[in-house]
Amino acid sequence: MLMSEYLAAEWKPALGCTEPAAVAWAAANAAGASEGPIEEVRLICDPRIYKNCYAVGLPNSEGKTGILWALAIGASLTDRSLRLRSFDGVSPEMLARAQGLIERRAVHVEVDAQRTELFIDVRVKLAGGIGRAVIEREHENLTQVAFYAQGHAWSSQTPSETAPRGVSVRARLAGMSIKDAIDMAHSLTEEDRSVLRGGARLNLEIARAGTSLLPEKVVNKPGAGVQERVVLQVSAGVTARMSGVSQTVMTLAGSGNKGITVTLPIWLWGLEHGHSGERVEEALALGCLITSATTHHLGTLSAACGSAIAAGAGIAAGLVHLEGGGAPEVGLAVSNVVGTLAGMICDGAKVGCAMKTATGVEAAFRAASYAMAGEGIPATNGIVGKDGETSLVYLGLVVTNGMANVDAEILEIMQRKLSLARPHG
């Protein structure tokens, strides 16, 4: 696999959280299948889409949050070419239309608990019929756009452009050895390096913007070292993104938080310690590859926190590479992350993700430091395997099989909280 192929599939720009952005893009496609005023908008989605849209901020929405607003705003959009940057197209008039839909209770969401993969099915009822758009498995994998007019069969339109298949890329990476991943990171072309640098700039910019959102005592903590400042930057970037700050980020493996969390520690640590730009770029490339491979084992959307665990494994790998470690040390670092962070649940996208990602970054630094000293959590301990690759396999088994009921419980809690928050009487 060429790095250019990998980057096209896994290193993509997005505005805001990718789950509500995908919901909005699907709604825009469904509404665009016909003309006329919108009468009703309905979404059927998997539990993890619901979970990740539940409390997250939406860009250009005047502070709106949650899945109903993502759906209503999306149905009001007119530019369907923006994909995961759909919130970039929001105007005051569109926001007013969305508010009208919300106020007259014309927006509805149903969770299909049997869906285990990413699934978004939006139907928009308009004066002339019903438009439908379906996204499956990946945030940009639009599999159907259709229209139903009264008395006629569904008329399907084949989407004009198919998104690069990140899931298949992740599967291929998960089947590679760590040594193969290192070799792949060394194969960067100048164009690949330029793409990586562009993404790093975006993620650094949102981190700078998010610093103002953190407590002053945290930002201006006396005596903070480089590592602590790096963790702070990651927290700032994730806080900004989860709050709905209107700045594009470079996502990784379907997640903007993963993109921010992997990029900043490797980039800032590398430059702070005098490593060449070329070496930093290769370390970032390796960190991305390991993150994508780990995401394959966890799932695109997961019961476990991919932004801490998958990104943590990627950071640790990149830091080891910066310090001159090879495949054995990278494997130790990955196993150390697995042995430390396995079990951290994902309870949806929200500003609280900033603390989880900070924990992942801290664990990654510790994992890399131990690995470079030749120390790793022994393979006799828990789910840690004989090498990094095996540890990731065991991690995947625990998350996909052992944590199968976690999302159902989280969904139940979220719906209970929503019910308690509604006015009674």
Mean pLDDT: 93
What is the CATH superfamily classification of the largest domain? 2-methylcitrate dehydratase PrpD
**Number of domain modules:** 2
Strand order of the largest sheet: 3-2-4-5-6-7
Write the layout of secondary structure elements.
Layout lengths: L2 H8 E5 L2 H14 L6 E8 L1 H7 L13 H10 L15 H12 L3 E5 L7 E8 L2 E8 L5 E7 L6 E3 L8 H9 L3 H9 L3 H21 L5 H4 L6 H18 L4 E5 L3 H17 L4 H22 L7 H17 L4 H15 L11 H20 L15 H15 L3 H16 L4
Helix pairs in contact: 2-4, 3-17, 4-5, 6-12, 7-12, 8-10, 8-11, 10-11, 10-15, 11-12, 11-13, 11-15, 12-13, 12-16, 13-14, 13-15, 14-15, 14-16
Can you walk through the features of this model?
- With about 425 residues, this protein is α+β, with helices and mostly antiparallel strands.
- It folds into 2 domains: about 15-155, 2-Layer Sandwich (60s Ribosomal Protein L30, Chain: A); about 165-410, 2-methylcitrate dehydratase PrpD (Orthogonal Bundle), CATH 1.10.4100.
- The protein has 17 helices and 8 strands.
- The chain has helices at about 5-10, 20-30, 45-55, 65-75, 90-105, 165-175, 180-185, 190-210, 215-220, 225-245, 255-270, 275-300, 305-320, 325-340, 355-370, 390-400, 405-420; strands at about 10-15, 40-45, 105-110, 120-125, 130-135, 140-150, 155, 250.
- A 6-stranded mixed β-sheet has the order 3-2-4-5-6-7. It has a two-stranded antiparallel ribbon with strand order 1-8.
- Strand 5 (about 130-135) and strand 6 form a beta hairpin.
- Helix 6 (about 165-175) packs across helix 12 (about 275-300) and helix 13 (about 305-320) runs parallel beside helix 15.
- The chain is globular, with a radius of gyration of 21 Å.
- The model has no long low-confidence stretch (mean pLDDT about 95).
